[in-house]
Design brief:
Layout: H1 2-26, E1 63-70, H2 75-86, E2 91-96, E3 101-106, H3 112-121, E4 125-132
């Protein structure tokens, strides 16, 4: 009988933690992946619609940048960063979770400030931006 009570209390504790995390994420008070609490000056990331980039020929993009993005912890995060980068007209991005790397190809010169702004709006950090070409 004593073990039954311990098991029930353990299940209740796990459910309580799960509910707190779900409510925190849904309300924008917690990060979706890491569960980190977001401060009042750090709003939850904006959601960007997936862009339908039809032109995926690197030769058509005369400008490029190699980015390092902080805060990505899963493929959902990588997709969110890709969507944010591709929300800038004329951009095509390839984002890999490993090392937080992204390659941004652009038809116009890369505007680092605009790139930083969309990455941060999505809830991530632009750690480096090496503009090439």
């Amino acid at each position: 009988m004593g073990i039954d009570i311990v098991v029930v209390l353990l299940v209740v504790a796990v459910v309580a933690v799960a509910v707190v995390r779900i409510v925190g994420t849904a309300s924008g008070k917690r990060d979706c992946c890491s569960g980190d609490s977001l401060g009042s000056d750090a709003p939850a990331g904006a959601s960007f619609a997936a862009a339908d980039v039809e032109d995926t020929d690197p030769a058509h993009y005369p400008h490029a940048a190699e980015l390092t993005v902080g805060g990505m912890s899963c493929e959902h995060c990588a997709a969110a960063v890709k969507n944010a980068l591709e929300s800038i007209e004329g951009n095509w991005a390839e984002v890999t979770l490993a090392g937080g790397r992204a390659v941004l190809r652009a038809k116009k010169p890369v505007d680092e400030a605009a790139v930083r702004e969309v990455v941060e709006r999505a809830g991530y950090r632009l750690l480096s931006c090496a503009v090439g070409k």
